Amino acid sequence: MQRKRKMMDTCVWCESKLKDGETDIEVNIAGEVVIFPGIKCKICPECGEKYYDADSEQQKHIDEITHRLHTHYKGLHLRRKLSRSGDSLLLRIPRDVEREYGLNENIEVEISAYDKKKIIIEVV
Ligand SMILES: [Zn+2]
Fold first, then answer.
1. What stretch(es) of the chain map to CATH 3.10.20.860?
2. Model pLDDT, residue 96
């Protein structure tokens, strides 16, 4: 993906006249691909190079959402070591997460395998 500060009329590679078009923009946020469909851009009819207007409302919207999601995921990312007690493997839940989700020792959670590296813990 190429972003140019100034919108131009001709392709920098082959100097063809650019046409108005739409495309999907993919943004990688914490390992998840978020797709923004139908983003206005200029496309080179020869080589297919796409040019985006970094100052457009659409682009600002994408930047804002991307920033917010990054901040959100960062806030939820924690690294914890597992420990063992007898036969059981223990995962300690940090105090701020306990408070945020209203957890206590009487609450039931559902544990499900998401993929080979992700386990989801849901409050039921
Ligand atoms: Zn071109």
1. 3-76
2. 72
- Distance (angstroms) between ligand 1 centre and the Cα of 84 equals 60
Residues with CB under 5 A from ligand 1 (ion): 11, 13-14, 16, 44, 46-47, 49
Rounded to the nearest angstrom, the distance between the alpha carbon of 60 and the centre of ligand 1 is 25
Q: Does domain 3-76 correspond to CATH entry 3.10.20.860?
A: yes
Residue-wise pLDDT for 79-94, tens only, equals 778 899 899 988 888 7
Report CA(64)–ligand 1 centroid distance (Å): 29
Residue (of 40, 46, 52) closest to 8 by Cα position:
52
Asked if residue 70 lies in contact with residue 30, where contact means CB atoms within 8 angstroms, the answer is yes
**CB atoms inside a 10 Å sphere around CB 97:** 14
